[in-house]
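dumping these here so i dont lose them again. two proteins, back to back, each one seq then structure tokens. dont judge the mess
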Amino acid sequence: MIESERDPQTGGKRIVLKPNASLTRVQARLLLCGFALVLVSIGSAFAFLGCWFVLPFAGAEWLVLAYCFSLAFRQSAVREVITVTDADVMLERGIRGPDETYRFRRAWLGVSLDGPAAAGHPSRLCLKRHGRKIEIGRFLVESEREALYRELKEELTNG
């Protein structure tokens, strides 16, 4: 998902990139509760039939599922913020705050959209300067990546 806004005072542009998170935390909790109910029901039925050892495996299965949900929510919290001013372009990446920060001189920065390495793979959108490339928007779908490429290309050439 791409959100862009222009600062009316400085004239700079701020572009926020974030993954599309279609499942909310409340929905995930409800889904996990539903899975727990199903697993406890199946495990209890087997325990009633004398196969009590199914219950610990059902619990372990639920814990693995909950862990996978937490990993997915952590990945959906990633943000990339691109700030374009008259002189600089700044890229900040992180989950709760900027873990990585890159600052480039606007005049020396380019943007490239490299085709996929193999069929079925996504293209790569990169900021480039003096042969060094930094990939941005890995989590974007192809149409969003192309739209961001056009927007950055226009923003960098109109400066």
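---- next one ----
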Amino acid sequence: MNLYLEDEYNFFEKHEDLFEEIQKVIAKCLEVEKVPYESEISLTVVDKEEIRSINHEYRDIDRATDVLSFPQIDPESNGIIDWEKLDETEVMNYDTNHIMLGDIVLCYEVADEQAKSYGHSLKREVCFLVAHSMFHLLGYDHMNEEDEKLMIEKQNEVLSDLGINR
């Protein structure tokens, strides 16, 4: 797995242990979903103003949010990517021969606020947000109650397996 990090706010420099943890979360998500390819994910750390701007531009929602996901692969249905039918030419990084799953944009300020609000660690919040985004990159969504339940189960499985609890 290749994880490309853009962090002009030095968030992970200040929280070195978190970068290692999110790599574990990403690897576990790929394992749980049995992704048969070496994969590539981009993670960008932003502040509230930047994520508000991105949210407005891409979702027409003019407010800050905690995390945004930009998948490169369209699922056949919720959580179903047919890896055997995948047109690799559309999502292959030919420099690395890895499949580009997509981009995660994480707002460090909102993550910190939510961790405090929910009464758990910043590690737990950031890992939850990364797991949540990874399942979006892997074809899951939460547009209805059934799909949301499935996505929550997947996220909880990954975090529990890694011992990252509330």
